[in-house]
């Protein structure tokens, strides 16, 4: 559902951009359309698009822009703030119309780039800051997380839940607080263990964090670690197979 929502939102934004960039009419009655200047859209991700999750969904949206609107598209994985700035500079100075930055961590760099390149629109997934050409996409993930917490508390036999996160940023913290609140609405005495591994793709670290929570009694674990989630799954599977 989140993947489809991202794709739909991206299409709506791009359609608006296309409309804004197309002049009403020329003297010969023909609109100045995308044949002369095709839309150019780029995607920045802080993790691999092979994650079968957060980044893969964004990349699928980028390809949908290409296939449905004929846009020229590009993707780049960036891991550090310096790389964020460099990628924004590269795409904007090359004349890209839209740059999607898929993660809260991009918002400061997007604001800086937006001031330097007013002709490019920067869209930050999970961001919270606006400017004339910087737009955040805000997902209401807390609602589903609250319900997940309620469900977890109802099925837990130990009264201990676990949460494994990637980077400790507000969107992830918000989902964890909502999960905890939902669980406590069912069982005020429930314990919730929390761990952050500091990145989105360290499978071994996620597995270690999940094992620690399982050993401390957690019998339900929620994660927000993207590609590293495979480590959480491995930890749970091994615990079950060992009879733990």
What name does the CATH topology of the largest domain carry?
A: Rossmann fold
The CATH class of the largest domain, by name, is Alpha Beta
What is the H/E order? HEHEHEHEEHEHEHEH
Uncertain residue ranges:
18-34
Radius of gyration from CA coordinates? 21 Å
Given helix and strand content, the structural type is: alpha/beta
Beta-strand percentage? 15-25%
Domains counted in the coordinates: how many?
Answer: 2
- Strand arrangement, major sheet: 2-1-3-4-5
Number of helical regions? 8
The CATH homologous superfamily of the largest domain corresponds to: Response regulator
Q: Report the end-to-end length measured between terminal Cα atoms.
A: 33 Å
The average pLDDT is 88
Protein traits:
single chain, 244 residues, alpha/beta, Rossmann fold, 2 domains, five-stranded parallel β-sheet, three-stranded parallel β-sheet
